[in-house]
Automatic annotation (TrEMBL):
Residues annotated to bind substrate: 10-12, 178, 218, 239-240
Assembly behavior: Homodimer.
One Pfam family in the UniProt entry: TIM
Molecular function GO terms recorded: triose-phosphate isomerase activity
Protein encoded by which gene: tpiA
Principal cellular location given in the protein's record: cytoplasm
UniProt xrefs under InterPro entries: Aldolase_TIM (IPR013785), TIM_sf (IPR035990), TrioseP_Isoase_bac/euk (IPR022896), Triosephosphate_isomerase (IPR000652), Triosephosphate_isomerase_AS (IPR020861)
Subcellular location: Cytoplasm
Name of the featured protein: Triosephosphate isomerase
EC number(s) recorded for this UniProt protein: 5.3.1.1
Organism: Actinopolyspora mortivallis
SUPFAM superfamilies: Triosephosphate isomerase (TIM)
Length: 261
């Protein structure tokens, strides 16, 4: 079954709401509507930008999707500073990144917490982008496939098949994030293929064939096509390069199979 490629721009902690509006306008202007039949393009700004981005996308009937970078596992309550899944759903979010390696590292997020966040997202009809990935040390030990597979199965624990089918997985090797060191297409395919095999073993091939598996880590216009050509890579989670409107539009066009805008 053909899976529609997804190109998602994780802006991380960059751009205020005014800068967000300017970037979304630039991306939308550079991408004619016909591209959106062949690729889904999403922006994932900081929480403080989401209302502005939603208003722009709805008002101008843009075909871009938007989402958030994190979520609370709780629906509401005394959790100072947190943002809940119902709040994000109300802001029109299609996606929520869960378990990014920066959150696992800087906020000590465990697989158990990541799993609770994944459930919160799915409960409110959004799709999680569940991130998995190994450190350089784990890769050098040769345990990278096992490590990522464990993170995947722990993150999805207790979900129904229909919920797994709606989820997006992102393989982001920690050593390739923001370093300019992209995994080779073969390295990325090795892990993404193993993740799909693990999904097939646990949930059956009908479910596994629907799940989109993205690669993330120093993706840019010069390497996106080769990565997306791999059998089990269905798109990219882009960090730094998604902050440049022309570059992100170019990558989206390449993901759609061209021509360039
Ligand atoms: O972490 C990433 C996306 O979530 C990747 O970041 P870079 O594209 O900047 O390496």
């Amino acid at each position: 079954m053909a899976r529609q490629p997804l190109l998602a721009g994780n802006w991380k902690m960059n751009l205020n709401h005014l800068e967000a509006i300017a970037l979304v306008q630039k991306i939308a202007f550079a991408l004619p509507e016909k591209y959106f039949d062949r690729v889904e393009v999403a922006v994932l700004p900081p929480f403080t930008d989401l209302r502005s981005v939603q208003t722009l996308i709805d008002g101008d009937k843009l075909l871009l999707r938007h989402g958030a970078q994190d979520v609370s596992p709780h629906d509401s309550g005394a959790y100072t500073g947190d943002v809940s899944a119902p709040m994000l759903a109300k802001l029109g979010c299609a996606y929520v990144v869960v378990g990014h390696s920066e959150r696992r590292e800087y906020h000590a997020e465990t697989d158990e917490l990541v799993n609770r966040k994944v459930r919160a997202v799915l409960k409110h009809e959004m799709a999680p982008i569940l991130c998995v990935g190994e450190s350089l040390q784990v890769r050098e030990s040769g345990a990278h496939v096992q490590h990522c597979t464990n993170q995947l199965l722990e993150g999805l624990k207790g979900l129904r098949q229909e919920q797994v089918a709606r989820s997006v997985i992102a393989y982001e090797p920690v050593w390739a994030i923001g370093t300019g060191k992209v995994a080779t297409a073969e390295d990325a395919q090795e892990v993404c293929g193993a993740l799909r095999t693990a999904l097939t073993d646990k949930y059956g091939s009908e479910v596994a064939e629907q799940v989109r598996v993205l690669y993330g880590g120093s993706v840019k216009s010069s390497n996106v096509s080769e990565l997306l050509d791999q059998n089990d890579i269905d798109g990219a989670l882009v960090g730094g390069a998604s902050l440049n409107g022309d570059e992100f539009a170019k990558m989206s066009a390449l993901a759609a199979g061209g021509p360039l805008p």
